[in-house]
Amino acid sequence: MRRTGVRHSVAAILGVAGLALASIAAFASTATAASTSTVSLNCSTVVDPAKPPNTFAWPDAQFVFSATGPAGTAVTVEVSDLPAIAPVKMAGFPGTSKLVLTLGGTTTTLTGSGSITNGGANQPVPVPDLQGTLAFPVDSLPDVLTSFQLVVMGIATDCVLPTATPTPTPTTTTSATATPSASTSPTAEPTSKPTPKPTSKPGSDSGKPAKGSVDFACVLNPLNTDFDYPATVTVSGYRKKAGHDISLSAKMTDLPGISPVPIDGKMDVTLDVVVGKRKTTLKGSTHAVAPPRQKVPVPTLTGSVAGDDEVEVSVTGFTFNFAALSIDAACTADAESLGTMKVGSEPIEDDAGPDGSGTANGGSTADGGSLPQTGGGDALPVVALWALALVLLGAAGLLCVPQVARRKP
């Protein structure tokens, strides 16, 4: 009797265990393992909405799914590096990624975000891993892939299969939201211009500056890309005693507003001038701050040179340099004359440019010589320079030859 009861109990336990094992086996049969899909994509990057998008091919893009189904499965997707599309190094830039899959009117959107760092200029660009929940099994990625997107500091790259046409994501919203901050430039004008007047003593000679328009032809390095900089340049001079060198101060109108993202970093500038028959280089430095697509103030440039009380002044060149990222521009002019400068006897106020902006921190030179540039650059957000480079670069030179995508280590 007792043995019969034991047999029934053991049978019951084994029956329950069998059901549990059967359920686990049934669940395991529906789960899927990791899967790698390789596709070729056509991509488009919009930097300046006023210009055509920059297009390029992304051959052999790899998407590694941690699982491909069933519906409701949480997945992580690793993506191979984007081709080498950035002309400057990216160092820890915030970025987001998005993969859209569609099947029978149902959409699955996987997203990712992270810090993006690559090996340098014209090097492949890492993509943040994507995560999300599948709304349907992904048996064949090409059959369900709708679009892929990578956004780095507001600059979007959109990719689709070759059979579709990429729809570029405009970057105008980033610029538009920051544009009202441009009101900071005009507010400086009325406060800074009256400042020099109280410093002049009754009967003192403040001299007369040479002022004129200069059309600079500029080249952005290391991209070797051309752009124009029409500027109004004012050069003033004074000396305390007869026979002393002339202390020079130059003010320039702002650089063109060509960056679609904010600028915030140290900028060094130089201005090559001819005073009388003597060549000299004036220098300045500032922490440049400007909203998207707004003009960038140029600091006051200073220097010294020997010369007479009234001298002709002409301009031959200008440079700006963001030392932290090894990006600079060299500008030339055809020795354009600013007219005659009358040397004064009072110090030159140098805390405002022609438009009331800029601060001085320059060097000085003697007859035809130039001092070496000093000081290291603060870190300028690289995206500002990247965007500046892309705007100037244009569609033809933006992209290097696409490299075969590679898996991330």
TrEMBL record:
Ranges of Low complexity composition bias in the record? 165-192
Query: Which residues constitute the signal peptide according to the record?
Result: 1-28
User: What are the boundaries of the region Disordered?
Assistant: 165-210, 344-373
Span-the-membrane segments of this chain are: 379-401
Is Transmembrane helix one of the keywords UniProt gives this record? Answer: yes
Q: Which UniProt keywords are listed? A: Membrane, Signal, Transmembrane, Transmembrane helix
* Designated name of the protein: Gram-positive cocci surface proteins LPxTG domain-containing protein
Tell me the organism: Nocardioides soli
